[in-house]
Structure formats: structure tokens, C-alpha cells
Amino acid sequence: MEAQRSSSSLIILHNATIVTVDSDSRVFRNGGMAIEHDKIKAIGQSGDILAEFSGTAGEIVDLRGQILLPGFINTHVHTSQQLARGIADDVDLMTWLHHRIWPYEASMTEEDSYISTLLCGVELIHSGVTCFAEAGGQHVPGMARAVELLGLRACLAQSIMDSGDGLPEPWANRTAEDCIQLQKELYRKHHDTADGRIRVWLGIRQIMNSTDDLLLKTRDTARELATVIHMHVAEIPYENQLIVKTRKVEHGTVTHLEKMEFLQNNLLAAHTVWVDNAEIDFLSRAGVKVSHCPAAAMRMLGFAPIREMLDASICVSLGTDGAPSNNRMSIVDEMYVASLINKGREVYANGTTDPTALPAETVLKMATINGAKSVLWDKEIGSLVVGKKADLVVINPRTWSMVPLHDSISSLVYCMRTENIVSVMCNGRWIMKDKKISTVNVEEILSLAKEASTQLLKRAGIRIPNRMNMV
Ligand SMILES: [Zn+2]
């Protein structure tokens, strides 16, 4: 990236292919953009932007041959679980949850959460993410400290549970009221901090660990604070079966949530794999947003009815889930996997699949503007439009993985690798330039993470069987 600089805060990016993902899906073949402070001031043909703004610009960046995209939005990621990468591979779901993840999360300190979020953030930035929604983890203050430093935008939530079998000690005695008070305090301290980059949401880990009292209090508190609820919904058939049995409804989680008027347009439902047509209709009518996490779904949940949800006009976005469910925290990989598995799910009578299902334009929207709508931030992010925040990524397609390039949109979804992302700007500030993250010391984070993870597993008493034939 070549840049000329002076003391003005105005930045010009020119000579780029700009994929705006705006309401007309405009792509500028030789586009330019002017950025002032944290916002996009102008966007148009490169020559026009240069003519109007180059006299007052502080930095002029020539992006010849490169592609500009809105920053990706990862709508379901467990930043707390980054230090748990590799601790629960190839194990069944109950071992995964009760013997690996719960003991791990229950043993975390705030410092662990801070380091875990830093490590996760490094991977998110490299994959072009500028905004993420925390799925609900441990120690929001630790997450917030890391996000502030990383320069990312984030919606943070605490993992919240007030019931259920086998809960570890620190969470076992929390009442619904304790859960609400804890989150109100987090909201008061951290909401709208870090130059407006951090928002605090309410969390519900999942229905099997929530009383109806907690669900109702959460719904009402979200309304009172005008914030969003993040919840894992209908992940496995057993969840639906248990809800039918214990809450006396005819289908499962979504039917129960509909009956208690919990479904609202400020609910971000993660996974949402095991839903029937009536439940898709409930979600659609309420304006609930869905975070589709294709890699994690393939690993342990099943095929979510994404085409049906999109046909019902539900806003579906993309998430990576956590490191122990996926290992790769790259939204670039998720775009590729989402396109493949949703084509593969549409099997014709003759056994072939449907290559027209979930086309590249749809997948790209899921990672950008639908992500912004899912986190209720689309007035300011999700597309490259004048007046919105300058959250963007620069892609170098001149590599063996992307050449030749005939159609930018399909190449971005089917060919692009994380390694093609060279620079990332969030809130008008470069947080990665030429693949070097400028906000934190990555080498230091790697050392801290290795040490913290080892100590944490020891404290939690988690032993990973050694499957290597070490000689
Ligand atoms: Zn999750």
C-alpha cells in the first residue's frame, strides 16, 4: 500500500474496485473514497474524488488492482473460548460441554478473558472483521479492555444461565434477578464506550439453562435499555424434546418463545438449526435475526434451513462460533462453507445438488449488510455509503488463489482466502496495514495466550488425551 501523508485527517483511497454492498449493489470499477475522521465523506469515480479532495487530504492511498469491501461482521463469536482452541476436537456434545467447555469457562479469570479476546481479535482482524457480536462469555470487562485496544467494534454479552443440570460452582446459585442486575451493571459501565465502538447486550446462553422468569426479565430489560439479546436457539433435537416435555408446548424452543412473547426484532438467535415451517414463520413475523454458523453446525448440530429462512425474509448473517467448535475464526472461510453446505443441502431426486442455491451475492450480503442489520447497527455500518462509519477491508486479489478474476463478487466468496486481506480500517482508523496489525503487539499476545491457556487448563483440571504416537 503506497501512501502520501500530511497533517490533515482526510484520507483518500483511490484506483480501487469498490464493492459497496449498498441498496443498488453498486460496484465502482475504478473507485475512490474520501474518509474524514470516522466517516465516509464521499464515494465515486476515482478521478472525481481525487479532483475534489486531494488538495486537502492528509493521506492518499493508491489501491490499484485491489478491492475495497465493507468490513465483515461476525455475528456469533465466543471471544472467551479462543484459549480453548483444540481442547474439544472429535468428542461428543456432552463431553464437549460438561467436561471441557464449562470447566474451562468457569475457571477463567478476567485476565484470561482479556488475553483470549486479544488473541481472537487478531484472527478476526486478519479475516477482515471490523465488528463482532460476542456470543456470551466470561468477564465482559476483560473483553471490553481488549476490544478498546484492538480498535474493533463489538457487541459484548455475558454468558447467562440460572438453571440446568451440572452447572459448575460459580454459576450454580445465580437467580434470574442476579443475572439481570449483573448485566445492568455491565451495561452501565461499558455500553457506548471506546468512542462508541462497544455496545453491551444481554445474554441468554440457551433455553435449557434458563427459567421462564429469566427469559421474561431479559426481554423486559432489553426493552428498558433499548439493547439486543443474544441467545443460542434450537441447536439440537434434544433441546426441542426437553422443552416439549418440561414447558408443555407442541414443538420446541421457538414455539415456546413465541408463546411467551419473547420473539422480538431485537433478538439475535444463533444457529437456529432445528425449526419447522411454523417456527420459521414465527421468527419472520417477529423480525428475529439469525446468525448462521455453518462450520460449527456441520461439526455438531446439523443443517439449518437457511434457504427457507431467507425465502421467509428473515435476516440471516454469518458467525464463526467459538474456537472449540470450529477452530478457524475466519469469516472468509465461513462464506465459502456457507455457500457449499447450503448448495449441498438441496438434493434433487436424482441425487445431485443445487449449484444455484445461496448464490455469491447472497453470501456476501450475509457477511456485511445482513450482519449490520443483525446487530441493529445498519444505519452506521455494513455497506460503503456516504455518512456511514469508515469500516472497510482492502483485498489484494493478485495471488495464485484468485487469479484470473472475471467476476469480483463470485471470486470474493468462492476463491478469496483470509490471506488475501491486506488492510483493515475500523471507525476511520487503520487497524491493519499491509497485513501488519498496528494496534497491538501480536508476538506478545501469542506468548501470553500460550501461557494463560496452559495455566487455565491446569486450574480447570482438563486433560486432553494425547492422540499422537510420540516417539
Ligand atoms: Zn455459540
TrEMBL record:
<keyword id="KW-0378">Hydrolase</keyword>
<protein>
    <submittedName>
        <fullName>Uncharacterized protein LOC116210656 isoform X1</fullName>
    </submittedName>
</protein>
<dbReference type="InterPro" id="IPR032466">
    <property type="entry name" value="Metal_Hydrolase"/>
</dbReference>
<dbReference type="GO" id="GO:0016810">
    <property type="term" value="F:hydrolase activity, acting on carbon-nitrogen (but not peptide) bonds"/>
</dbReference>
<feature type="domain" description="Amidohydrolase-related">
    <location>
        <begin position="67"/>
        <end position="431"/>
    </location>
</feature>
<dbReference type="InterPro" id="IPR006680">
    <property type="entry name" value="Amidohydro-rel"/>
</dbReference>
<dbReference type="InterPro" id="IPR011059">
    <property type="entry name" value="Metal-dep_hydrolase_composite"/>
</dbReference>
<dbReference type="Pfam" id="PF01979">
    <property type="entry name" value="Amidohydro_1"/>
</dbReference>
<dbReference type="InterPro" id="IPR050287">
    <property type="entry name" value="MTA/SAH_deaminase"/>
</dbReference>
